[in-house]
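Two proteins follow. First one:
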Amino acid sequence: MSIDNEPAAAEAARRAPSEDSGFIARVIGAAGDHDAPLLRRMLAALDTADLADVIEHVQLETALTIVRLIGRELPAEFLADLSWERREEVLPLLPADYVARALGELDTDDAAAVAADIDEKQLGQVLAAADKDTRLAVEEALSFEEETAGRLMQREYVAAPEGARVGDVIDRMRSEAAELPDVFFEIYVVDPMMRPVGAVHVSKLMRERRETPLAAIMAPVKALIRPEMDQEEVAHTFQKYHMASAPVVDAAGRLTGTVTVDDIVDVISEEGEEDLLKLAGVSEAAQTDSVARTVRARAPWIFLNIGTALIAATIISAFSASIVQIVQLAVLMPVVASMGGNVGNQTLAVAVRALASRDLTDANAWRYVVREAATGAAQGTMFGLVLAGVAYLWFNNGGLALAVGLAVVINLAMGGVVGILTPLALARMGADPAVSSSVLVTFITDAFGFLAFLGLATLILLN
């Protein structure tokens, strides 16, 4: 019996608490009964990331009840692991002294992220209850714009002078262990003005003899990050140079902190999700969003789509006489338009990704445009022949087959060109190429597809 249950037991052991419906049901029941001791026992053994997941997955009222009952006893790290939406909802229920202590326990980058979600009145109370170092670090972080390196920057780092030896650094780290960052990857070698001149990976440091000078084993710093740099640019720098961490310097080049790869993973995930949602005309998709908030976020794009659809309908109405005489046009014209839209959106996805990763630049844009136009034309030729054959067999009309085949070639070539030029044009104008590109591409390929097919059909069959 026990052997038969081993796979199920192993699967249950691998399952995260937030994915275990039985565990979640017990948490909801304990919160509903206001059973603080049971909640305490159930949540105490969880990793802070799993604890945050549980509070994310339960209904808002249940989450607030948990925080009211045992919030003061929860570890500080769970606040950093919560989404900003849920964090904004639970923070007002936590005492100022608990939040102040939590900010002091977190790394300064996580403390800044939490502090950014505290309303202004509560933040004043929290900072008043915090120690001086925490207060100064949080105030400095919040002085930078959102989504910049200054918000990601961890102010705890390990630096050593150029003349230091391996043994000196190891001894100092051991003697000052309480002041070290929780996780760090490099020791920065600095000149007398605190400007980084090199870096030594911790793994390399531990392999060297104690008397080895740092200057003999340090590597050049691959990139210096300014605190006002956009987080997407920071992520691109990390990706380009394959870095685990990077020093942050002020205007004078002095070391002020470091950005680590764990934050960059979050940035890449957030930016990728944001671009994906924007391509679909959606700006919000949090599980905590209400129906009203979701409607407000999505409705403007639907209104824009109505406008573009009406323009396409106007083009169709201009050929209403042709459609009345040749009813088959009404059957085939959506096929031509949808094929162009598919090619356009395929090209658009490639273009937006290439722009985000800096693969597509002004220097090579022309090569991308030519390639996508040629690809669209090649696909158009191939599928135009297929659709022309289908139309001929279906309707036994050579002129109609010729019109639909040519229209597919023209519209798919147009889809390739529009799919690449639209995001390029938006980026050149300083707009986000992911925001409205898909609506524009679909509109242009639909309108051009209708115009090409109906126009060619009218020219070939009715003249």
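Second one, unrelated to the first:
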Amino acid sequence: MAKANIFDKDGASAGTVDLPKSLFEAEINEFAVHEAVVAYLANQRQGTVNTKERSDVAGGGKKPWKQKGTGRARAGTIRSPLWRGGGTVFGPHPREHRVKLNKKVKRVALKSSLTSRAQSGDVLVIKSLAFEAPKTKTFAGVLKNMDAYPRKKTLVVLDKATAATLKSARNVAGVRLTAADKVNTYDVVWADKIVVTSDALRRMEEVYAS
């Protein structure tokens, strides 16, 4: 049974807890993890970059000089790619970069990454992580007590995030918040430490166990 250290709301150690076998004891499939990360990064690209080819550049309708007798190289237009201000050769144009990944592969990749992080001892469970008022210093202090901050990239998984919790975390460098039902493989691979609340852990089991 996979286990993780559990902490109270102040970040003090409170022993260990069993992690759901369905999520944290899966067979590791590195190929699926790679596919999921590549797909995630590709889907972040906007694909809006554009360049003008010689037919798109304004001007250049008149031949710069006559074909023969000038001693200069032949030229038909000032918008040639050889000229400054001319068109671009084989430049990029708007395109769709999205990569489709089926649901089964996504599940396998997520479970593989979670299992790998649990085996490395990088999954930490906290009983509660809620604030009545925004307290960035307090939030950072809790993570520091858990050895998940600073000098570490930390993924914090919450079941339900209050506005105060979101405001407490948004200025803490290297910390990324996500909902339990929106955890993805890239975030798991990106983080050095994964901090999961007890409620979020149960929610993850409900959503991803099948």
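SUMMARY FIELD: The CA atoms of residues 20 and 205 lie 7 Å apart. The first strand starts at residue 3 and ends at 7.
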